[in-house]
Write a structure and sequence with these properties.
The complex is a heterodimer. By secondary structure, chain A is an all-beta fold. Helices cover 0% and strands 56% of the residues of chain A. Chain A has strands at residues 3-7, 10-13, 19-26, 32-38, 44-52, 55-58, 65-70, 73-78, 87-94, 104-105, 109-113. In chain A, the strands form 2 sheets. In chain A, strands 2, 4, 5, 6, 9, 10 and 11 form a 7-stranded mixed β-sheet that branches. Chain A has a 4-stranded antiparallel β-sheet with strand order 1-3-8-7, with no helix packed on it. Chain B is mainly β. Chain B has one domain (3-114): Sandwich (Immunoglobulin-like), CATH 2.60.40.10. In chain B, strands 2, 5, 6, 10, 11 and 12 form a 6-stranded mixed β-sheet that branches. Chain B has a 4-stranded antiparallel β-sheet with strand order 3-9-8-7, with no helix packed on it. A two-stranded antiparallel sheet of chain B has the order 1-4. In chain B, β10 and β11 form a beta hairpin. Chain B starts with a strand and ends with a strand. In chain B, 38% of the residues are buried. The chains are: A mainly beta, B mainly beta. Chains A and B meet through β5, β9 and β10 of A and β6 and β10 of B.
Chain lengths: 114, 115
């Protein structure tokens, strides 16, 4: 069966520090991968998605970047964190066999920028 | 453009009563609709989806959803609510532009089930 991992689970970082959040998927190949941010425990904002290694699409301009160095690894990064980067970051994957594919979410990373 | 609306920020029901969480959608073409649940400080869990076929879709934990094309709705239902159903519920529609698998989410509805 497929599983998705995210780490760390929680992170407290000072403003201006770098960031690296990691997401890995097991039990599938060539998944579509997604990074979301959830602010104030409410709506989800899609940040990035990837349909293959090295292929990254950004949904909103921001202080963050994403990379996909391996088929089942998706990394969210920042060179210098802002206070507004605080939030709950969710990684998700789906198959690539059509519009009916379900997205499955990881457990999330809680980021607090101080 | 595709969109999803969840008109209620919060729904309150008594344990044992039926519950409904509302969702309406706007899409060009065939709708692919999803429901997710989120417990505090956890990721989203998939409940059910409508792709095609029967308008009544059954999912996890006793939930079901009714697809209504004429009303462009996909309401989530459960015959008898449990306190443990209290959580944040999201409706989503597949973005049919391209083959990216992107989902468009509603703003979420908090379900509070009281003993």
């Amino acid at each position: 069966s497929q599983t998705i991992h995210q780490w760390p689970a929680t992170l407290v970082q000072p403003v201006g520090s770098p960031l690296s959040l990691e997401c890995t998927v097991e039990g599938t190949s060539n998944p579509n991968l997604y990074w979301y941010r959830q602010a104030a425990g409410r709506g989800l904002q899609l940040l990035f998605y990837s349909v293959g290694i090295g292929q990254i699409s950004s949904e909103v301009p921001q202080n963050l970047s994403a990379s996909r160095p391996q088929d089942r690894q998706f990394i969210l990064s920042s060179k210098k964190l802002l206070l507004s980067d605080s939030g709950f970051y969710l990684c998700a994957w789906s198959g690539d066999r059509g519009l009916g594919e379900t997205q499955y979410f990881g457990p999330g990373t809680r980021l607090l920028v101080l | 453009a595709q969109s999803v609306a969840q008109p209620e920020d919060q729904v309150n029901v008594a344990e044992g009563n039926p519950l409904t969480v509302k969702c309406t959608y706007s899409v060009s073409g065939n709708p692919y609709l999803f429901w997710y649940v989120q417990y505090p400080n956890r990721g989203l869990q998939f409940l059910l989806k409508y792709i095609t076929g029967d308008n009544l879709v059954k999912g996890s934990y006793g939930f079901e959803a009714e697809f209504n094309k004429s009303q462009t709705s996909f309401h989530l239902k459960k015959p008898s609510a449990l306190v443990s159903d209290s959580a944040l519920y999201f409706c989503a529609v597949r973005d049919s532009a391209g083959n990216t698998g992107k989902l468009i989410f509603g703003q979420g509805t908090t379900l509070q089930v009281k003993p």
